[in-house]
């Protein structure tokens, strides 16, 4: 019989590189104190053998697992999916592995899986808390483990720090842009109101419209899909209440708006301007290209991880570190050019 495959050890790495076990350990944990030539030789041995750290053994020695737990609802929607990817990338760059756990949006399921993640030995947990259904998971995790929630609004869980993108600001950017193009009547097709992003965007729309004295109306809620953008726009046409501009809660709903307007022979932006939110991949290739708001997902992932690591390591968060990041307006051809005077 063939000998069973054995996972390479630090001793194997040391033997191949011609160094001591302690030198390999230093390369892995304090590489800056090892001479470059020696460090390179050890790294070559690690690559050749396919050596990976035994995190379970390291956790027994240090009481730290270098494992970050992440809870999501498994949504394929652009915002939550991009946030999840950004956090994973930031964790890898910092030398942490991520245990990704998907929870059911129902309360009992969120509590149960949240408890399972606690038993994994994760040093801390990041929760992508996009909607109310994730709040029980946040509460369960926060009972015994440092937790950072990534959300547009603070879940009602004491002691949980929240980071996110300023969705209200993004909505205000859209409204102010539309006003600068000459629009005086705007309808916001809002998203599902159990989602924190949708609530914040609606709040931002109302604040901006009220402050600018616009003729502003809210329709919906939609469910983030092109279908509801299409149906809500058809209803506006049927009622004879089409505004000068439509601000959809996300780009997917905006796609439905564009389709409905085209079906009725209406021109964008000449008859009705259209704006979305998220800067979804492909938004610039729509006809016309879609005005929207871009969110700094990569920066958000790094911010969430940095705040969690500060909690884990007992470090003070730098005073200039924000809780929320600003989004960026991306003006394209679905809205009119801004007036210069």
Automatic annotation (TrEMBL):
Sample GO molecular function, one term: DNA binding
Keywords on record: DNA-binding, Transcription, Transcription regulation
PROSITE patterns membership: HTH_LACI_1, HTH_LACI_2
Domain HTH lacI-type: 8-62
Disordered: region residues: 319-341
Record Gene3D superfamilies: 3.40.50.2300, lambda repressor-like DNA-binding domains
Spans traversing the lipid bilayer: none
UniProt protein name: DNA-binding LacI/PurR family transcriptional regulator
């Amino acid at each position: 019989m063939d000998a069973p495959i054995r996972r390479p050890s630090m001793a194997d790495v040391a033997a191949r590189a011609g160094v001591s076990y302690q030198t390999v350990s230093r390369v892995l944990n304090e590489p800056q104190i090892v001479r470059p030539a020696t460090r390179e030789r050890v790294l070559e041995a690690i690559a050749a053998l396919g050596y990976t750290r035994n995190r379970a053994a390291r956790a027994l020695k240090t009481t730290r697992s270098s494992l970050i737990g992440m809870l999501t609802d498994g949504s394929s929607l652009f915002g939550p999916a991009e946030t999840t990817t950004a956090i994973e990338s930031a964790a890898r760059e910092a030398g942490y592995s991520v245990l990704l756990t998907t929870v059911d949006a129902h309360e009992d399921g969120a509590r149960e899986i949240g408890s399972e993640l606690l038993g994994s030995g994760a040093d801390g947990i990041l929760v992508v808390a996009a909607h109310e259904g994730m709040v029980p998971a946040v509460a369960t995790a926060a009972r015994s483990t440092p937790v950072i929630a990534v959300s547009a609004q603070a879940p009602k869980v004491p002691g949980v720090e929240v980071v996110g993108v300023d969705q209200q600001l993004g909505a205000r950017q859209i409204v102010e842009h539309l006003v600068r193009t000459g629009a005086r009547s705007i309808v916001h097709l809002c998203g599902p109101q159990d989602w924190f992003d949708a609530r914040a965007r609606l709040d931002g729309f109302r604040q901006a419209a009220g402050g600018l004295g616009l003729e502003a109306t809210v329709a919906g809620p939609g469910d983030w899909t092109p279908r509801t953008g299409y149906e809500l726009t058809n209803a506006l046409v049927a009622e004879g209440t089409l505004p000068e501009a439509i601000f959809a809660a996300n780009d997917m709903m905006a796609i439905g708006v564009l389709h409905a307007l085209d079906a009725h022979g209406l021109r964008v932006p000449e008859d009705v301007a259209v704006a979305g939110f998220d800067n979804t991949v492909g938004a610039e290739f729509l006809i016309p290209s879609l005005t929207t708001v871009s969110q700094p997902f990569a920066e958000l992932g790094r911010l969430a991880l940095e705040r969690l690591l500060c909690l884990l390591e007992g470090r003070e968060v730098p005073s200039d570190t924000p809780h929320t990041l600003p989004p960026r307006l991306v003006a394209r051809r679905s809205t009119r050019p801004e007036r210069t005077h």
